Each structure stands twice: as C-alpha cells, then as structure tokens.
C-alpha cells in the first residue's frame, strides 16, 4: 500500500543508490513540487544537493526573503541570486505576453546556467516534475514550453546536458503534498496557491516597469493577507491581483485623480484546466478595496473579475 512514509523510504534509498557521491543542482521556485523534490534529495545526499533560488523581480512582496529563509531553516544548501535587474532589462518595452514569457524563460536559463557552472563537477539536474507534467507535456503556457522554444533557437545551455533526476514523477499533486507534510515541510509552502513561472509579469498587462511591479506587489499583499486573515485563503484554489494599465477618474479630498486600476481574481478549480470565479463575501471585498485604494499610491479603483474558465483564462495574459 502506498503511504507517504513508505514512498519516502524507498525513494530516498533509490536516490542514494542512483546518485552515490554525485552532485545535483536544482532550481527552487518557492512552490510545492520543487520544495518537496529538494527535501527528498537532501535526505538522500545532503550537501551534495545544490539548490538555486532566483529572484526575477516578479515575485510577490517579500517572497524571495521569506522563502529563502524557510529553505535555510530546512537545512538546504541553497544559493539565492538577485537577478531582478537582468529580468527588468530584458522585459523593457515588451508588451506581447508570449514575448514576455520568452524573455523571462531566456534570462532564467542564463542566470541558472551561470549559477550551475559554479557547482564543480555537477552531474545531475534535479527537477520537481510530477506525474501530470509527464503525461501532459503539452502545456501551452508552461515554463517548459518557454524553455523548448528557446532551445530551438540556440544550442543547449550546459545544465540541460546534465542527467535528469525527478523523484516525484510518479506522484499526483495531492500525494506530493502528503509526502511534503510527512517530510515536515513548512505548511505555508505546502499550502501555497499555484503561482506562474513568469510571476507578476503576466499580471501586469502590457509592458513591465519596476514601478508597476512595486504597485502590484503592495496591492497583491493586501489582498492575500486579507484572504488569510479571513480564513478564506485555503478554500480558494488560486488568487492574485492584476495591474490594469488603464487610467480612470477618481476624487480624493478636493482633488481629481487619474490613476490605474487593480483587478482582483480568485478561482476555484481542481487542476487549473477549468475554473469558476469565487463568490467572495462582499464585506471582505469591500475591506480589501478600501485598504488598497487608501494605501497603494497610483491606484484609485478596484474591480473584481467574475469570469470563469473557459472562456476566460485564470491569468489575464
Ligand atoms: P491559465 O491562465 O492558462 O492558467 O488559465 C492555468 C494555470 O497555469 C498557470 N500559468 C502558468 N504557469 N508558466 C507557469 O508556470 C506560465 O507561463 C503560466 N501561465 C499560466 C496559471 O497561474 C494557472 O495556475
């Protein structure tokens, strides 16, 4: 019978056997899959696992510091890399969603490749691939698609020539969470909403600037913190704020304002393929709207997305 503990025991033994004294490099994203894969590998080979966590400047507010901190507490051998500026430079002036994704994928590969080169004699690339990723590698917008389209253009970066080790590739998401729990991973990491690889770049419509990212981070933090405080976060499959680059008129005191709009999105879903918008309580929406408008400079209007998928996608880009 499958249990998380039996899975951990056999997998750790198999990884030890397979990897011996070899070194493994693995990119952490803050998400469930890469975290569980990393902790399993860490159990098997300890410091021979070298984790890399890239700050692409498109994460949620304070996420890089918080996630890095919790990984360090787990004892992982991890290197945090501040690559914000490289991503902003690559994104400057790009408005097309697919071009933005490709630029982000390309820079991520460059940054990761540089970091992987610093690990002497590394033999393996660790990945948090889970079973649905294996059977459904047709995901149109996933990061692997970005990586593939990049590769058609140039040669393979060196880390892609490494042998691949994927300890979770027989598991479904709920099994990954159970294994993570049995491994003692921070419930805040295990219970996280899905967050796209290109991050806030696909929640800011059109071109990206550090200023827009900062505004969206503030609004998104108010939104997510309120969902948590109201006990709603765990009932929602995915939630996030979107920055709309349109301006509308508002009033503040005697002044007329002309500022941007934040849209709130929250969905219920099983696998992200279809989704329904969540009927969040009006009182909660009112509180979030007031807090955003009163505290986030540059925003004078908040709207709520009442579209389901299909036909609307979960992300706006
Ligand atoms: P959509 O917007 O297609 O999203 O309804 C479905 C799920 O996929 C996530 N998503 C992405 N994840 N890279 C990712 O890693 C991407 O480019 C990407 N685009 C969408 C989205 O957040 C949702 O969970």
Automatic annotation (TrEMBL):
Keywords carried by this UniProt record: ATP-binding, Glutamine amidotransferase, GMP biosynthesis, Ligase, Nucleotide-binding, Purine biosynthesis
Annotated EC: 6.3.5.2
Catalytic reaction equation(s): XMP + L-glutamine + ATP + H2O = GMP + L-glutamate + AMP + diphosphate + 2 H(+)
Parts forming coiled coils: none
One annotated GO molecular function: ATP binding
Pathway assigned to this chain's UniProt record: Purine metabolism; GMP biosynthesis; GMP from XMP (L-Gln route): step 1/1
Residues covered by the GMPS ATP-PPase domain: 2-192
Enzyme's top EC category: ligase
A GO term from the CC aspect: cytosol
Binding site for ATP: 29-35
Signal peptide per UniProt: none
Assembly, per entry: Homodimer.
Function: Catalyzes the synthesis of GMP from XMP.
Name listed for the protein in its UniProt record: GMP synthase [glutamine-hydrolyzing]
Organism of this sequence: Mucilaginibacter gossypii
Stretch of the intact protein here: 222 to 538 of 538
